[in-house]
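Final report, closing paragraph on structural work. Over the funding period we assembled a curated collection of sequence-structure pairs, and we close with a single example.
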Amino acid sequence: MSGELKHECGVAMVVLRRAPASPGDFGGTKLSLLLEKQHNRGQDGAGAAILRANPEPGTPPYWMAKSASATPLADVLCAIGRRRLPNARIFLGHLRYATYGKGDETFCHPFVHGASDLAHTLLLAGNFNLTNAGELFGEYSRAGAFPTSRSDGYLICELIARGLLCEGCAGKDDPPNPVSAPTRRNLLAGLRSALSRADGAWTLCGMTGDGWAFATRDPHGIRPGWYYADEEVVAVASERPAIQAAFDVPPEAVRELPPPPARNVSPAGRVEMAELCPAGPLRPCSFERIYFSRANDADIHRERKALGAALLPQILKAADADISDIFFSYIPNSAQVAFHGLLEELFRAKAFPRFGQIAVKDAKFRTFIADAHSRDEFYKHVYDVTYGLVRPGRDTLVVLDDSIVRGNTMRNAILPMLDRLGPRRIVVVSSAPPIRYPDCYGIDMSTLGELVAFRALVNLLGDCAGAELRAAPGNASRDDGPNPLAPLYARFTDEAHCAEIARLLTPPGMKAEVRVVFQTVENLRKCLQPRPLRPFNPSTAPDCGGASIGDWYFTGDYPTTGGYKVLRKALLNYLGHNGERPY
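Its predicted structure, as stored:
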């Protein structure tokens, strides 16, 4: 892996197939809308590039703006509005979301491979992470190149750009194309050469200086990508509702970008599909649909509601109280839609629950206190609480969250706050299953020791944990598995695992009893299926058998060989950092 793992970034591209009939800055406005509607995907960096059609020698062929300030997207959108670039045709934008530290503008997309020949100039942006960037870097260096960075973005841009220099590299089955044929041949050659050797997940958008645009996804469709095309424009984005809002079109007009062929747009505006490499089993990232993407997508909204409904039997069992003595609530804001599904399921069951918003996140809460003890005290107040809804000493409080990854916020901020209300029991509910394994395709879950589910496993193993974990990597001799930790997790029931997680989440001095409920993997697979809107029924919902969703962080079933390599590396790093007793 090339470095720290990040949350998913966001990408957007607008290609004008002909001069727009609308007055004003049509392309710049649409790109700005696509970026703004995906603002959840960009917190610490943003960038945009705009390519001219048929630039004159002596004039810049493209315009670019990047920002890594405290308000990066605002900076870039203002720059788009102020730019001076006549005859603009291709508009490319990117939002960066890095949860560990902040890189400078050098690491903001788009990346550029410049050349005096426009056909050899490449601009690239994407939502991606490679698991074998180190190997690709070595191959690139041994081939005689001199890479000036080890970042994924720079590397994949340079590898694709090499194909632009390779004359006569077209595949034998490529259809003839008289328009810019050399660039098309070489672009496809570069994409095939670079991406066929890459291991990881990606949605890439790019353009060449002479006017070709392309978009492509990884063979397993891990990272999302959507496109819309009409007679005037082709648009690509990471999220479907962003395109719907920008172009005022219904959901059925926006199609999923099929992995892994490239969708290309020629300088003349012709749209085509080009095969790059064999497709693998589809494994779209399910954690992204649970947590990261906006729920204003019709399918995601329906699936999140189903996730909330599916949890009801487990919740009632854990609450162990009469329905009149249970107060239902959620942790804002991404768990809200699942909470609606839970309430609807309660009403369908003829239960009439008491519910309301107990936790209120103070979005503007900031502190720069240097003293560690004082800072910890302020951290507890990131959330506010609604008083007077929970009856002290009598009620069981159920709070639904989207997921529990590390558990730090739950232990240090949320649970102490809820305990002030005086409930006899608090049931913390996660709409996602327990996250037992690191991710290597985009989510910031790369360190095993930070995952509360893994720490619970270590505690359950007890005195033999050190020896068991040191022996685990040796059980996996193949690049594609087996998963070295799966046999250790299988020793304990889900109930025992949840009980230990609850103990780890309980802060010192907690008065209320804490119980934890997680979504089951089986129900997750049933819920994340496109189907008509209807009440959730686990006995009749279709089961995809794990073949069409990505659930490796819950199951350890990685879609690529790089995933298993990363898991073993994460385990070895954990053991190395913690010595003889790894907990």
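The chain has a mean pLDDT of 86. The two ends are 25 Å apart (CA to CA). We thank the funder for supporting this effort.
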